[in-house]
User: Fold these one by one.
Assistant:
Number 1:
Amino acid sequence: MSSDTTPDDAEARERLTDMAAEFYDQFADGDVPSMTLPTRSKSNIVFDEDAGVWVYGDRTSTRSANSVSGARKLLKSVYTIDFLAQQLDEDRSSTLRELYYLSESWGEEEAQFNNQSESDKLVEDLEIVSGVKREDFHMRPEESGAKVMGPLRIREQTNRGDREIHCQEDVGQGGYQIPNNPDTIEFLDHDTDFVLCVETGGMRDRLVENGFDDEYNALVVHLGGQPARATRRLTKRLHDELDLPVTVFTDGDPWSYRIFGSVSYGSIKSAHLSEYLATPDAQFIGIRPADIVEYDLPTDPLGDSDVNALESELEDPRFQSDFWTEQIELQLDIGKKAEQQALASRGLDFVTDTYLPERLDEMGVL
Amino acid sequence: MSSDTTPDDAEARERLTDMAAEFYDQFADGDVPSMTLPTRSKSNIVFDEDAGVWVYGDRTSTRSANSVSGARKLLKSVYTIDFLAQQLDEDRSSTLRELYYLSESWGEEEAQFNNQSESDKLVEDLEIVSGVKREDFHMRPEESGAKVMGPLRIREQTNRGDREIHCQEDVGQGGYQIPNNPDTIEFLDHDTDFVLCVETGGMRDRLVENGFDDEYNALVVHLGGQPARATRRLTKRLHDELDLPVTVFTDGDPWSYRIFGSVSYGSIKSAHLSEYLATPDAQFIGIRPADIVEYDLPTDPLGDSDVNALESELEDPRFQSDFWTEQIELQLDIGKKAEQQALASRGLDFVTDTYLPERLDEMGVL
């Protein structure tokens, strides 16, 4: 699935119904209907060194109607394809959870889902086989995207008309709320030098209050912990389409490094979407273990689960650079972690007056 | 603390420094400095039948410098008052977490906080004694407010100037993001008949996609689980200042009834703020246990913790009406719970075409 593939509704609908047509043809030819897709287990995830993202490997599994459970899976696929095609016809959308509940209204009881993880997985399978993202089937994610503040003017296509919004001048202190499907956004013009993704709401508010976005022409994107799919997609588009450097500012602990990893390299769960969601050129600002030492930040001791997570990151292909090995080993050595707001121990303006300008300069971003 | 008390910065500063001045006077009079405040334990929370909210009772505790730990508490209070007064002078703001970290920069080591719960609690104490809300000390909550969509035009005072925003025409599909301090919002004009607070993001998106806000002149407020302080404050202001009915639409389980309870009656943790945050006239839409039966909704069985929570709600003064007793007993009887999105089992439009119009009509809101 290539990141610039955003099929229109008719094309998405066609790719969906092609799958159903294939079952039909298999029947017509006297074959047992089946569907082949990549094996979706951890053992079939490979790190694509060139693209710098996780993708599925070469192993495939076949789902065939030659067993009752296989036939039931294909039946559910056909019902789901029918629902999605109708949704596209009517220009409607729905969430994964609604699809699960909606299946209760299907006349054929065997086609109804037993639980939501079953319907979620089926939609992912359809994404993989059709090469169309679920957003293009008009399946909205349950979680909304984050907030954006910075010198960027966008046009969003909403279901009640287009809206032109400048992400500093036309929004309140809370910023612009990314819609569930950020592919409805068109970038109009901007005065942005780089994207700054921020993990916590408290730090996001600090940067906005101190006017960091304005002074440094930064587009501040609030990640809010593990970032939603919509946030990662928008970040990637800002990088690819506007050619903006992407930087990530998180707490200094192993869980936050994973947040950086999911922005930059993609996640195992959505490996078929890495090219659509991941920004391999994203750069890590900090908090780095070296910052804890250099700035003598207030810390908490590493717990057992922190140590385990750091050790598993040492083995993780996404963290195999000299930079990460050094930082992770240093952190294991000092046995401490720090939050980004710990920078406030040097005053409320230290982060915007000193820490970020110095670090971004070192990184070649400023 | 009355809900229409929004002191300006000078007044907030004065009430703070008055506290410090009192310590000074006590010293000057040869007395041991002390501070008296309501006892902040569950045993001293009473339900104010007239106002319909939780408030503190008559018991008080005195914090005196006649012990080392009492003296240390007063010292921390003085340092904190000094910081807050300076923050007001400079028209800055900060979060509770920043205050905790910032204390590490204070010259006097004895005044530094040992952990954030200590500094959080001290700020609450200062709110209670001074009668000024922490927002008026310019302490921002860590959590941001929710999203609003509906026929309302507001003016928000941001730190980069005023912004006029119509919460349908000037925002994307994601809506207007409530700022951390909603008292910076002025209501300009509106065409709103009622406020509809919605628990989940999926249902909020469904209502917006189906244009429910537009068709019924509803202001849709996304609660996002247990609502942030900013969301509850905004809801109360919409009710009090614009005289709008407030309705609450949640999942049908005991935890969601508590969400309704915190919107309408306030919470034990913030009993000193009930008059500022709670909307006792708020009405519960559902999902009601009776809806589970009437609409034959897809359900999950009640777990042990659900049953315990329901039983404790039967004893809770906030749920002592006939309506709630009947609903909770019915739920214990059927042993089931349902999510709001379970309404999708009757089609994606059932909630906006049938369920909400019928229920709101019954409730006298439409």
Number 2:
Amino acid sequence: MSSASVTTITQITVEDIRFPTSKELHGSDAMSPNPDFSSAYVILHTDNPLLEGHGHSFTLGRGTEIICTAIKAHAYLLIGHTLEEFISNPGAFWRHLTSDSQLRWIGPEKGAIHLALAAIVNALWDLYAKREGKPLWRLISDFTPEQFLKCIDFRYISDVIKPDEALNMLKELESTKSKRIRQLEEQGYPAYIMSAGWLGYSDEKVRLGRDLQDDIRRLKIVREEIGYDRRLMIDANQVWDVDQAIQWVKQLAEFRPYWIEEPTSPDDILGHARISQALRPYNIGVATGEHGMNRILFKQMLQTNALQFCQIDACRLGGVNEILAVLLLAAKFHVPICPHGGGAGLSELVQHLSMIDFIVVSGTWENGITEYSDHLHEHFEDPCIIKNGRYVAPNKPGYSTQIKENSRQQYSFPNGPMWKIHS
Amino acid sequence: MSSASVTTITQITVEDIRFPTSKELHGSDAMSPNPDFSSAYVILHTDNPLLEGHGHSFTLGRGTEIICTAIKAHAYLLIGHTLEEFISNPGAFWRHLTSDSQLRWIGPEKGAIHLALAAIVNALWDLYAKREGKPLWRLISDFTPEQFLKCIDFRYISDVIKPDEALNMLKELESTKSKRIRQLEEQGYPAYIMSAGWLGYSDEKVRLGRDLQDDIRRLKIVREEIGYDRRLMIDANQVWDVDQAIQWVKQLAEFRPYWIEEPTSPDDILGHARISQALRPYNIGVATGEHGMNRILFKQMLQTNALQFCQIDACRLGGVNEILAVLLLAAKFHVPICPHGGGAGLSELVQHLSMIDFIVVSGTWENGITEYSDHLHEHFEDPCIIKNGRYVAPNKPGYSTQIKENSRQQYSFPNGPMWKIHS
């Protein structure tokens, strides 16, 4: 980066893009029988016409306009600010974006306003990585430990992880970093294809939480199909209360599920802790986090041993900065990162995050499972590539966030041509 | 209620109403130095031109448009439905409103979408109470325990309170209910005026969390002024991390604060539990909840003894139904309800809630402190009335939610005449 050049954010555009996936039952589950995978999409324009940052927040269709409105509400915190301001202290800029005294009331740091923040912060990192000519995973892998820490707002997590401790963790892995970068570039990062577990495809796929006898019948079929050597995950999509979750899953223990995902409300830290404890004798872990609202929730989930698999969502946590905070917290508690990858454009993002975790933060991919969903990649400028069940390390500059202009026009809601056809 | 009549919701209108209070420093605090007290306002129109339900969600200004967008997103869950549907099973209708499979993603049950829900649910209860010709507190006080329970969605709280247990709690207080109604009507409900503690008024008022030496100086002045017989509350508005909160408040212990309010992130259950435990030897309680996002958070706060004063917010929890759930949880743990009353129209709402708690749920007002803020009441059709430091029980039908039409027009944002003057 040349110190002479300054890039100023001059304008933002916000788009509501929806793919009518409900027609095809992609991604349906007990709580979301008919999602339309969608993006609240933002472009940060700069005074350099060749340099734009693109970011999106994933949604299920209705309500995308709420996130779009929330993104626009942040415009005045962005326009006129420079990329160099962000680069010089990404954590401070992140705090600037989360600290508007009036907007804060309608969070703080959760729900629509935080999903909007994610889109914006993703776009800032896309801009930064493009400017540096690096894919995001590599940009951050090349940071010094000190630079990495500057990305993080330690507010509200310093009781569990302090900057000093984090610095030591990062420094310990620094000398072996280049070895892992090579390893990643040669082998790719292990991916897990989630679609098989989703409801609605056909009778032999796993579904959970509606009817116990039916769940038993289905898991039996799946185990007969895949045997007991392969891992089988089960997902309840929050349908149970705490006691019910424990009773239900115990009755599925004979099928040796590797984890139970989202057994109850994503906000219930103590509930997840109780479920984890009850299922430990059965060797069934608890996975949660795709609805995990912020670092403060993850901090407590980890403090109480409430989750054994940490399912960060790239667009629900407040963008890359907050993700890095959660990676550090999870590494401290030796809990593997298993990002949520279902949905439009999430696989593109989470590959970068898992790679950063492997190279810089946890130093391992041993138990990390990074979800991959095989939908809608054709709409992305830099789609993720899977080879032999592994994510190939991206090499184009940016955060793989950019949706093709033609797709954005076609699927623009409610007036794009694809919605005229479907309506 | 006559069984012959059916009232159908035909239309909703949504308004963005903002009072330019930042010009006068009403309600400023460490996190919100310059709020414009505002309302995301909804009117439920029915096929009976004489019957409308009004509801609002309180905000601090910027971002009100996000809540308005979120309210509109719920329109299709309301229009064509009948008031009788709501009345016959308010808890089921509440779940209907919170369970849209696509909207749920951008919560669930938190942030902008939940603030929008509050406005809608408040309007439904206003409609119901008007139809019955009763003020809300009286409508609900007249419910049988069974009717009361039907208002509550026990999802995600049944591990801590089950309907049976709640029923017993309510039944125990039933025989003495009429005595408390009389007592309330004669004496009113004790109010606490918060304005004195807010920042920005003048030098002698309490402010906290910015500079320790300054806090000590100020508390000294206040104690010299009011003596040690009166209660003094201190409020940090979330500025501290957990360790810092403990250290800071210990150094203020000599001034015998009754409670420390919002010492850290409102999402940090375990953090509040640690702070509570550390301050117990000093006889300083922890108060929190005005940013408490839903019943699942309050459940855990109560489970861990993280708060000693439960500060529910009438427009942040998902309206009356979820408030009733939290009242039950608090009563179970013998924690007093101290609702958040600062802001436009909140005092009008919380008086009803405190009265319901007193008459039906906890049966006591012993340690309950209901905040009263003396601003903006002139804009309300049925403003709350304080006599001798106590809320007079409202007697007009409804939930005291309705803002005068003239005020709504004057303060409509951004095009109302008052905003033309201020801009």
